[in-house]
Amino acid sequence: MAISVYQQVKKALQDIIAPELKEIKVEIKRLDDKITVETKRLDDKISAVEGKMLSEIKRLDNDIKTLEGKMMSEIKRLDDSIKAVEGKMLSEMKRLDDSIKALEGKTMSEIKRLEDKIDTLNNKIEVAMEIRERLKAVEAKVGII
Length: 145
Description:
By secondary structure, this protein is mainly alpha-helical. Helix content is 97%, strand content 0%. The chain is built from one helix and no strands. 0% of the residues are buried.
């Protein structure tokens, strides 16, 4: 019986290519399994790193909250200190202002006293000058007589 060319090509393909295709399928399956295993290993690694990162983020967040609390406390303490110093400064400024006003009052009073004394001395000088002029006039009359 004669085999047709189609049958011969078909048989050749089945004999040569079919086993190769089976080997390729087996190799693809092996590579697919290997990829699956490697993907699982990488997923596990990523999950572990992700867990560590989340834990570290939470720790850092807590540290930030603690620092914020300390900063707010320190800011309040500094604000209170500034207010206290400000109060002392205002009190001291008022005291100095009162002292300056009192000193101004005393100075003005002393100036007034000195002006009055100068006026009195001027009056006495005027009287002395007048007496001197009169004395000269009397001496002139006595010297003439």
